[in-house]
Amino acid sequence: MRKPITLITGTRKGIGKYLAEHYVAQGHIVVGCSRSDVDWQLTDYHHFLADVIDEQAVKALFKYIRQKFGVLDNLINPNSV
Fold this sequence. Notes:
The chain contains 2 helices and 4 strands; from the N terminus they run βαββαβ.
């Protein structure tokens, strides 16, 4: 059985980081993104530098996910208002 692929925005710190840790611990492969690089590592975590208000960056992020994993199961945007 394959691991679910989960994209989480804003994973550099705070709730986004906590969610990345949580979903990796639950057996997901997590792709996280933020405007800055992270200073931590997790097995099954892939970080992508992207500002979600930049359309080209978001397109590049989804292209990366499509090419590397072929599917996206979950999208979590904890910082939305």
